[in-house]
Amino acid sequence: MLIVADHASNRIPASLGTLGLDEEPRGRHIAYDIGIEPVARALADRLGTPLVLGGYSRLVIDPNRPLDDPTSIPVISDGVVIPGNRGLSDDAIAERVDGIFHPYHRAVGAALARAGRFAAAPALVSLHSFTPSLRGFPRPWHAGILWSDDDRMVYPVIDRLAAAGDILVGDNQPYSGQLRYGCTVETHALAHGLPNILIEVRQDLIAAPAGVAEWVDRLADALAPVLDDPGLYQRYRGLQAGPPRGRSMP
């Protein structure tokens, strides 16, 4: 299997300065998935699995967006204008695509190819974090599971996360995997029938080391039994667990 975290870093290449942004917006959710890098590193260590991390801010170029998506190199994000992304030449865009986007996806593809030596269909676990509120609307979920067609990992993980009864787990919330507006899972898993799951954790819950440790425990406990099933590692052949059971699992 493989764990990936597309938005693990808020780094900006030195050649681009700060993209015209002050320190405050560069530390916000618009720049990266707060808390997800330490979660991803610790979870990969716990499960003994390879890990690929996105090494640059999503404001430079978003590895989880198709290159023809207007948010691939955003000019504005959550109301914040990104001066360094305005009026880019084709050469400037190509430099980011060739220097950041393609190397990241080559790394993901290579890691899955290595995993494919040991399983007919290696599993892809994509980790993200989400802001507690967006555009003034609070998000009550503690975690969310995003998925499209292949639900083999989805409901076993939701059930195990929700079993303690102390968190609210969103089924395709706070975003919907059905919309397929991302890039990484769509390119590397869905297109090849690989088992996959995208897990979102609310950022305020993993902003400090204690929260990171708690959520690594939660995620490891939920994922390990699913990943230990040899029957998982087959190409997708249709829904296994039936239609969605609801939007939130208490």
Tell me what the structure shows:
With 250 residues, the protein is α/β, with parallel strands linked by helices. 30% of the residues lie in helices and 15% in strands. It has a single domain (2-249), classed as Aminopeptidase (3-Layer(aba) Sandwich), CATH 3.40.630. The strands form 3 sheets. A 7-stranded mixed β-sheet has the order 2-1-5-10-8-9-11, with helices on both faces. It has a two-stranded antiparallel sheet with strand order 3-4. 40% of the residues are buried. Mean pLDDT is 93; it is low at 239-250.
Number of individual domains = 1
**The CATH architecture:** 3-Layer(aba) Sandwich
What are the low-pLDDT stretches, counting only 5+ consecutive residues below 50? 239-250
Strand order of the largest sheet: 2-1-5-10-8-9-11
Q: Helix count?
A: 6
By CATH's scheme, which homologous superfamily applies?
Zn-dependent exopeptidases
Number of strands: 11
Shape assignment = globular
Strand content bin = 15-25%
Please tell me the overall pLDDT. 93
Largest sheet: 7 strands, mixed
Keyphrases for this structure?
globular, Aminopeptidase, 11 strands, 250 residues, 30% helix, alpha/beta, disordered C terminus, 15% strand
Give a nutshell description of this structure.
The chain has helices spanning 23-26, 36-47, 90-115, 154-162, 184-188, 209-227; strands at 2-5, 51-53, 76-77, 80-81, 124-130, 133-134, 137-138, 143-146, 169-171, 196-202, 248-249.
